[in-house]
Amino acid sequence: MAKPTIAQRRQRAPALTAERARELLLYDPETGALTWRVARGCQRGALAGTRTAEGYTQVEIDYRLYRAHRVIWLMQTGKWPKHLLDHRNGMRADNRWNNLREATPAQNARNRRPGQRNSSGRIGVTKTAGGRWQAFIGLDLKNVVLGTFETFDEAVSVRAEAEVRHYGEFAACGGAPE
Fold it and tell me: What DSSP letter does each residue of 1-38 carry, written as one string?
């Protein structure tokens, strides 16, 4: 009988449970460190996982790859997140417990960084053809213009106030966890 391939083992592996994760891993909520409780090709106490190209930490458990922040959520709450997990400070490898929160896709998109084509460096603020600054915010799949201003700082301030008012804790201008 042929030895099963890794792909076959992955298909046969049961879904990860909180009990299994806690059996294999230790988590420090203060630092976000996830370490091996048992020796699995490395020493006990070694940091678990590797960094992905996108900046997340991933960990292989029973032939399956998982994002570390999702495994941490499972270990801490006993259940998988219903939607996405958001890193409050935007740092994908910062898995401290106070930096993780559940988010819908819309909420998760609200505190993203400016894209490469953003010339102002701030989401929701753009320079008009006349040289003034316009602030806008996305609400209900529409861009709502908040006003046109003489200075960049005025536009940023109005945009930040609108983020707090409409996005609440998911406002990009909000502070990082302590």
Answer: -PPPPHHHHHHHSPPP-HHHHHHHEEEETTTTEEEESS
